[in-house]
Amino acid sequence: MTALLLLSLLLLILVGVPIATALGFSSLAYFVVRGGIPLEAISQRMLKGVDSFPLLAVPLFIMAGCLMNTSGITRRIFHFARTVVGHIPGGLGHVNILASVIFAGMSGAAVADAAGLGKIEIEAMTNDGYDPDFSAAITAASSTISPIIPPSIAAVIYAVATGQSVGAMFMGGVIPGLLMALSMMVVTVVISNKRNYPRYERSSFGEIWAALKESFLPLLMPLIILVGIYGGVFTPTEAAVIAVVYALFIGGIVYRELSLSDLRNVVIETIQSTAMVMYIIATASVFSWILIYEQVPALVADFVLSLTNNPHVVMLLLIAAFLVLGTFMESIAIIMLTIPVVFPVITRLNIDPVHFGIVMLVSLMIGLVTPPVGVCLFAVCEVAKVTIGDVTKELLPFYVALLVAVLLIAFFPGLVLTLPRLMMKG
Prior knowledge:
The protein is mainly α and 426 residues long. The protein is 79% helix and 0% strand.
């Protein structure tokens, strides 16, 4: 029966059925063929899969990202980043990366970064003489930081699926996200020196101060979210509400660049994105329940541990699996599908769940910029009007940088666990 379930899922994906629908139909086929389980269980499991208080943060963080892309916040972030790092070799490439780091602390959605902030970044880079392919590549690569640095929608979903603390997952992503940014900046310096890309004159203190004042309120948002969570003022879910209200306040009252028609478009985009995410979670919950019912996780754990009980080897195998899966499946679907199978393995090997979670998320983020289903790759290619093949070639050194970052995070758990442990002691 398990073979039928997996085979039907694979066939549906191969013929182009959306992943959420493929999960639903393959689960329905299992229930019909197997018999003995009422079909009402499907709807019950779907409902239970999305009936979670922490998941309320998902549509709210999506909305916060949409508001920032609409209300002039992203433009101010980009300008501030340019005054800080625009003078480094590769100028606007580093601005691109730093802007993504800042935006990540407000949104947590890679596609919002690539599609929203990416428009500003790619236009500025091409106007300054950067190759369009390179501009699109660095924009796509830097967008992978958004789901790692808190707040992170993917981290919320992982925490819900594994019963971990959302706050611990948030703090665990800070250093790895910065490490990803640093690795990409090194690549940018090397390429920019080779191609003689332009850079800005070093900004004066007055110019930096003026840009900081203009973007000060948006820059406060990550601090408000993290201090509020760890100060016990509000939960991560409530922090998402704060993010939306704060973005509305800045865009609508302070900057006055958010009209009622803009707000209507933001709400529509939020509803569409949320429906897609929740549909995946709901159908994946049914599929995961079937795997558990068939005792697949225990069988997989026994099989893996019969081959090796070395945590480092297992971690490498899982990273490789996530890299492959990420090239043709949505990261949220992968989280929901694989957690019931791999979680028993990592717990039996005493691998910290928060550490593993961040390693998993960083590995999956590489899939966002990898053909054939790299949604961020598609987004930046559409914005830059370049081909996927050309951008993929430019992405090759960034793939290497991200892989190095993944391996460092995997083999040095302190990069992930230091901040959560410090916060727990505090």
